Give the backbone structure.
Amino acid sequence: MILFFSGMTAVICTYPLDVVRVRLAFQVKGEHTYSGIIHAFKTIYAKSVLCFAGVSFFTFGTLKSVGLSYAPTLLGRPSSDNPNVLVLKTHINLLCGGVAGAIAQTISTMRETMKYVYGHHGIRKGLYRGLSLNYIRCIPSQAVAFTTYEIMKQFFHLN
């Protein structure tokens, strides 16, 4: 539960302006989903941000738990603040964070958008437009965010 609320807090504090900027920039001429910055903020928070944070932290936690359960010596190392606790190696943290970000981004953009885009643009010209740009942004961002999160937990002796 702490991971879920940590994710919500991080996303609420760090992503809003970037997300709104990208969404406003990629509106198709004549098809405006958002009437302005305030409308974009309200719509995005109501429909996708909380979903992204929850899915992202849930996925990361699941990958971490499964990885340490099935391959502890390959993927884990003793925590620097508590040697009795096993944590993911830094490069594995980056990988799990990136995968969690990609999965969360995919899920959070799919639900409402699928109906609209498929109906107006079809599969090839509609469903995949913009997803690769989101991957380029969110995969490194989430990889670094989760690695920093894990390192800071150790630094503050929270493991």
